[in-house]
Design brief:
By secondary structure, this protein is mainly alpha-helical. The chain is built from 18 helices and four strands. A two-stranded antiparallel ribbon has the order 1-2. The chain has a two-stranded antiparallel ribbon with strand order 3-4. The longest helix has 35 residues. The chain is globular, with a radius of gyration of 22 Å.
Length: 453
């Protein structure tokens, strides 16, 4: 076990905030969600290592503070989080999923090496499945994420808390983007970035990654470029919807500059999932905006949208044509695509052999959502998680018009962000060990109480 200097700083800061300022502790939790390449504590060696991220440290302390606060309320029967029974319709499948994932941990004990699986995700690295400490740590990551999302849901039911959470994450992404651009500029000028936030033994070296033609990738404080895209793009619906409706997170000019900067860094990340996510984002923004317009304005808006889309695509191919050719059109023939397809196929074989509970949570890797769930938790876990996603998405669509999420146009933004999380999870894998999907899922559940009224 190794604690880097910045890890000591995070630990001292977290304990101090836990003892004296719970609001600051919450802000630290949200702000450091993107810092997946930063290790508070490194455990193990090289590729077999794991790390405790700042989000994990701060989220654990924040959840613990909620538990202590609940226990100290004398004479009142309180829960750790205040969730009325009628609002458990969406949360219950998620809780049951965590139970099934826990039960599935008996599978590697029963298999005991009689089944091959790909745990690392690397092409051709199938090995016998045994119960190891990885199964435990992977489940702890999952359980922390689920509890965190439920706490996020409970805490942000107040309008001021919801808006505050968005603003903190907004500034977290601003720092992430600027830090990534600084690293990018240093690399292209022949200088090495300072890896102060890239100290994870397993993923911290991704700041040094290059694409096949020698160009640089932006990963910033994230584990890799594709994760950078995921943590950045989920804030864009709030920025864009805010600009469209004059409800800015900061102000008009800065939000527009923020939007330009984030889209630029997504393109510079050279992530094919980032390009696809930007296209999905544009289509969703277009459909939601068009739905509320009159026929005449729909025609004008549609024409303007496709004209701007044509200009964007033209300029993108003009300046990044070679890069896009490699990222999108040559991607199916690349080693990375073969690696992803290989571990999905192997994981599917594991599911076929053990369909009920899979081979156990954390036993095999699959770079998608559905096969990942099927292979690790079987039909039981997959159905529960998909039911949870369905109920949450349906509640977002049905969100009552008299709720603040609708009046502040937050409903449209969180719906788009929710769809992006699900889409990216399917094409790039469920990032359950990181904080950004659980933050968005927690914020997405706010609408379920509105549908009850």
């Amino acid at each position: 076990m190794q604690i880097p200097i910045i890890g000591f700083i995070f630990i001292v800061t977290g304990i101090t905030a836990f003892l004296f300022n719970r609001k600051l502790l919450y802000d630290l939790t949200i702000f450091f969600i993107p810092f997946s390449a930063t290790a508070v504590i490194n455990i193990g060696q090289a590729s077999n290592s794991s790390s405790i991220q700042p989000y994990m440290l701060f989220a654990s302390l924040w959840i613990l503070s909620l538990i202590i606060k609940s226990l100290l309320k004398k004479g009142k029967k309180t829960l750790i989080i205040k969730v009325p029974i009628k609002e458990y319709k969406a949360i219950l499948p998620l809780i049951l999923f965590s139970v099934v994932a826990l039960i599935s941990l008996v599978m590697p004990l029963l298999i005991d090496g009689s089944e091959l699986g790909n745990k690392t995700g690397r092409l051709g690295f199938e090995e016998p499945i045994y119960f190891t400490s990885t199964n435990i740590t992977q489940y702890i990551y999952l359980l922390l994420g689920i509890i965190f999302s439920i706490c996020i849901y409970s805490y942000n039911k107040k309008k001021e808390n919801y808006l505050h959470t968005l603003k903190v994450y907004y500034y977290a992404i601003l720092f992430t983007v600027i830090w990534g651009l600084i690293e990018y500029l240093l690399k292209i000028t022949g200088k090495e970035p300072i890896p102060v936030f890239n100290n994870s033994l397993k993923t911290g070296n991704m700041v040094l990654a290059v694409i096949e033609d020698g160009g640089q990738r932006i990963a910033s404080v994230c584990a890799e470029a594709s994760i950078f895209v995921q943590v950045v793009i989920v804030i864009l619906p709030f920025v864009i919807i805010g600009i469209q409706n004059n409800k800015y997170i900061t102000n008009k000019y800065f939000d527009c500059f923020y939007l330009f900067l984030t889209i630029l860094t997504i393109l510079l990340s050279t992530s094919s999932s980032g390009i696809l996510a930007l296209i999905i984002l544009a289509i969703l923004i277009f459909l939601i905006k068009q739905h509320s317009l009159s026929i005449g304005k729909k025609i004008l808006y549609t024409t303007s949208f496709f004209f701007l889309l044509f200009i964007f695509v033209t300029l993108t191919f003009l300046f990044w044509g070679d890069m896009l050719q490699m990222m999108i059109f040559d991607k199916p023939e690349s080693y990375s695509a073969m690696e992803r397809l290989g571990n999905i196929i192997q994981a599917w074989y594991n599911f076929e052999n053990y369909p009920l509970l899979g081979v156990g949570w954390g036993s095999v890797t699959s770079m998608d959502l559905v096969v990942k769930l099927l292979s690790n938790t079987g039909i039981a876990g997959t159905l529960l998680f998909l039911i949870y996603l369905f109920i949450t998405g349906r509640n977002l669509i049905r969100c009552s018009k008299n709720e603040y999420l609708y009046t502040e146009k937050l409903r449209d933004a969180i719906l788009i962000s929710f769809i992006l999380v699900v889409f990216l999870s399917e094409i790039a894998g469920l990032s359950f060990m990181f904080g950004h999907p659980w933050l968005i899922l927690g914020l997405s559940m706010i609408c379920q109480s509105a549908t009850k009224k």
